[in-house]
Amino acid sequence: MIQNIHPPVAKQIPTELEKFGDIRIDNYFWLKERENPEVIDYLNKENEYYEAMTAHTKDFQKELFDEMKSRIKEDDESVPYLYNGYYYITRFEKGKDYPIYSRKKGSLSANEEIMFDCNELAKDHKYFQLSGLSISLDNQLAAYAVDTVGRRIYTLHVKNLTTGEVLKDKIESTTGNSTWANDNKTMFYTNQDPKTLRSDKVLKHKLGTETATDELVYFEEDDTFDVAVGKEKSKKYILISSSSTLTTEFRILLADKPDGKFKIFQKRVRGLEYSISYYGDYFYVVTNKDKATNFKLMKTPEKATNRKNWEDVIMHREDVLLEDIDIFKDFLVVSERTNGLNRIRIMPWNGDVEYFLPFESETYTAYTTANVDFDTDILRYGYQSMATPSSVIDFNMKTKEKEIKKEQEVLGGNFDKKNYIEERVWATAKDGTKVPISMVYHKDMKKDGTNPLLLYAYGSYGHSMDAYFSSTRLSLLDRGFVYAIAHIRGGEDLGRPWYEGGKLAKKKNTFTDFIDCSKYVIEHRYTSAAHLYAEGGSAGGLLMGAIINKAPMLYNGVIAQVPFVDVVTTMLDDSIPLTTGEYDEWGNPNVKKYYKYMKSYSPYDNLKQQKYPNIYVSTGLHDSQVQYWEPAKWVAKMRTLKKDNTVLYLDTNMDAGHGGASGRFEALKELAKEFSFLLDLEKIKK
After folding, report:
1. What are the angstrom distances between the C-alpha of 662 and each of 68, 119, 550, 577, 650?
2. Percent of the chain with pLDDT over 90
3. Which of 200, 531, 658, 680 is catalytic?
4. 111-169 pLDDT, tens digit each
5. How far apart, in Å, are the Cα atoms of 543 and each of 266, 488, 511, 521, 573?
6. How does 578-614 read in b/e, with b if 16+ C-beta sit within 10 Å?
């Protein structure tokens, strides 16, 4: 039956694209026309083809969905955190897809106040996302943002938490980002360019006034920068941040004086990055000033914020990345990374001996979480590993006692972390660089080359991909899969130089690192090319596109989620969301050297007649980050070039964007599709 199902054929309309005298012919450029019925028809036909080709897996998908869902505690809730006199809680009820946001005044035994039941708010929408929750200083008002399309264009609302009334103040087409001044009636928020969706404006709204009269407080003219607005932990200052990939600039305003003028903290200098926290008449600055590649901590007087006044607090270290700080009344907490692993450093302000929190696993993730209370000795942090469910822990920085407030429950009674082995191994890249791989597998696994292995990576924007726990992943591990994360260059896993070594004109290191990690797991008999699978999303989807052009023979199957694959054309189109802000990541193709380099690896431009692995591609029609037409064009072109009988699927969610489906369990259905794709290739049917 399957042999008689033929994939759709997208018509070819040659479009000539010229740059620097170089002409590219794009036969599928027309797929950009989102409103064109022929485009929608093509996407629907690809969906129908995918459905027909995978019809035999539908029952298994349902079993996988039920299995993954059964491990999740449906009536779950977050660990409450105290903020400004209230305990805030996010909880889920059994059988419902969306969170309920609530709070309790002064004590956890107080009556619950439900602020937002997203199940009610979402009931008339195929997609729903509530974001940007911001509470006024007097605890009476909540600003919140709603997106019902998935394109991350939010409508901002204000709710009176005492009366339950949603005020008439309604602001359309925002980023969802807002913060309150201390007068409880002035709100600052960010807007975006309607075409590019770049966050470029900060406006001020007074409750009860027409939004058309909102004052433009700041406009970011440089189209490589984005803006955000917020309040720092002490609540004394409102901050406007302008940031690009390589450069930062802050503006500050006393939160008690919302009608004052924002003052530049330190004007932008290309290549100077910094973030600021306020404490005791000083601003503390995490920065790369003075060529501090891995960042250092400095401080400057509140009234003298220019960088000439900054003084070192923690010096720069070649082997330690300083990632962030949390400031408390009696302690400074520093989040660091060394040798690819997290460290949390406790430094008393009074000069007492500093120390690190102890972590014993070979590969793990540790991170500070919701520490919004300034006057406390309790540090809240999270911990997990690939075999250890995530925990939220309260640590007393004075007594050094810790209390596990919550450990993720894995329901069903079958999970025992002792059944799984975690490893961190090091592959050698083609230039001699050692690249870490974190992996987990069932203790009964034998290194005989027959095991299916799923290798995941991202490798862009300095985003570190730490070893984390997933209860859904157990559906693969318990069926014999090895799961591995390749910590390739382009992320910041081994410090800032690790990021610098996988961007701009060194971007190909990201791809060759992944290929060399793939060769490592084959050579060391964790798997073989017949059983190796690769997965990546967004910029990680670019990675997938690059590796199948360069080394398709290494993989039996590839999952590319919302893949960024048409690099040259997208980066030349400054009307597309995110493009101009990406020049410091990928290079500006309006500069000839970057154009040539980008073209040399862009997956769409480098497709050729050869054998390709089995491939499952997912996208969303309303994706604002990687436009749907990139994967659509990529699949259409690949269909004309692939010289094999492997499967190639394009699965488009016609109701969602970059993050996929919005419901809590709807996302599991998408995961069940991916898992069934892998398991079907392995001929595992239950």
Report:
1. 17, 11, 35, 21, 20
2. 86
3. 658
4. 999 999 999 999 888 888 999 999 999 999 999 999 988 777 899 999 999 999 999 99
5. 36, 11, 6, 18, 21
6. bbbbbbbbbbbbeeeebbebbbebbbbbbbeeeebbb
Say if residues 211 and 178 touch (Cβ distance below 8 Å): no
Question: 117 catalytic, yes or no?
Answer: no
Q: Which of 19, 13, 16 is nearest to 38 (CA)?
A: 13
Angle between helices 666-681 and 58-70 (to 10 degrees): 120
Residue type at 630 in one-letter notation: E
Question: d(Cα 562, Cα 618) in Å, to the nearest integer?
Answer: 6
Query: Could you confirm whether 222 is annotated as catalytic?
Result: no
Say if strands 453-456 and 482-486 run parallel, antiparallel, or are unpaired: parallel
Q: Would you say residue 54 has pLDDT above 60?
A: yes
Strand partners of residue 299: 284, 311
* pLDDT, position 658: 46
Catalytic residue among 241, 242, 335, 538: 538
Judge residue 164's burial from the number of C-beta atoms within 10 Å of its C-beta, 0-12 exposed, 13-18 middle, 19 or more buried. exposed
- Which strand ranges, in their side-by-side order, compose the sheet holding 402-407? 365-368, 378-384, 391-396, 402-407
Are the C-beta atoms of residues 452 and 678 closer than 8 Å to each other? Answer: yes
Per the annotation, the verdict on 56 as an active-site residue is: no
Burial 478-503 (b: 16+ CB within 10 A, else e): ebbbbbbbbbbbbbbbbbbebbebbb
pLDDT band at 577 (very low <50, low <70, confident <90, very high): low
The whole-model pTM stands at 0.87
| The two structure tokens encoding residue 553 | 């023979």
CB under 8 Å to 35, separation ≥6 — which residues?
none
- State CA 262 to chain mean position distance: 30
Q: How far apart are CA 101 and CA 78, in angstroms?
A: 10
Two structure tokens written together for 42: 């093509």
Q: What sign does the dihedral 518-521-523-528 (CA atoms) show?
A: negative
Averaged over 372-392, what is the pLDDT?
Answer: 94
- Catalytic pick among 97, 326, 623, 651: 623
**Helix (H), strand (E) at residue 482:** strand 482-486
SS3 295: coil
Q: Note the pLDDT tens digit of each residue in 181-229.
A: 999 999 999 998 888 888 999 999 999 999 999 999 999 999 889 999 9
